[in-house]
Amino acid sequence: MATLRCSCYAALPRAWGGAGRAVRAPLLAAWLAGLLAVPGAASAVPLALDQQQVMAGAAVLYNGRIADLRTAQLLDNDAAFHARVQRIVQPLLLQAARDYPESAAWQWEVHTTTDPEEHAYAFAGGKVLVSSAHADALNLSDGELAMVLAHEIAHAVLRHNLLEYEEAIRLEPAWAEQPFAALEHAVDHDGPLMAKLAPLGRQQELEADRAGLQLAARAGWEPHVLAGYFRKLVQASSAPNASGFAHPSPASRWRAARAAAAQLHR
């Protein structure tokens, strides 16, 4: 979902393995209030949602989170981990540009943090944040970290947030009469709407798992090594067969990743 769960993007991040939304509520509230204060914003009708609109909102949220981490001296503060992520992600971005030409024009940013409250997420338009705490907790190999990064890249290039906003309007057409900022806020804070969108969120997680694994394999990573990330999710979970609010169960993701890896070996 365009959210702070693992999910994901456009305006809000998909925090890869996490259970809570990555962007802080005060930041969202302040941003929403600011947009609604713009003359004419209250009457704006997002009848023609597009990727550029979604990316513009995403940039505001991402820049705010990056500024917060920088102020707290938690941005790119583990030099070794940051260098490791940059080394792994660059070939993935080159592959994404080949597979999804639109993304070649994006101004990708990939930052890291040691903040234990973060896992990994991406914003629409190629804005990524990864926490060393998540990698350390699971003792991720380079290949498994590549899977995390490729999953987040996949959320972005598959335009998952845009699709989520469109689904929200399909489910509740009244949102088409509201400003875009209100819709962005609702998909992460309106409980009934979030419940309706949860099945789409679970579907998008599986799509990002599959597309990310395929992308990373085309970039040169061994498929079974990539799939090993999901085995570690299962091992670290106290309820591996239980689905999250908008996430499939770790066990189901592990099964799907194994099957996808086996297909790539045929």
TrEMBL record:
The record's remark on the cofactor is:
Binds 1 zinc ion per subunit.
Which key words are in the record?
Hydrolase, Metal-binding, Metalloprotease, Protease, Zinc
Any stretches that span the bilayer, and where are they? Answer: none
Q: Which GO terms describe its biological process?
A: proteolysis involved in protein catabolic process
In this chain the Peptidase M48 domain maps to: 83-259
Instruction: Name its co-factor(s).
Output: Zn(2+)
Per UniProt, what is one GO molecular function of this protein? metal ion binding
Single GO cellular component term: membrane
The cross-references to Gene3D superfamilies, in alphabetical order and at most eight, read: Metalloproteases ('zincins'), catalytic domain
The domain of life is Bacteria
Family affiliation? Belongs to the peptidase M48 family.
- Return the protein name: M48 family metalloprotease
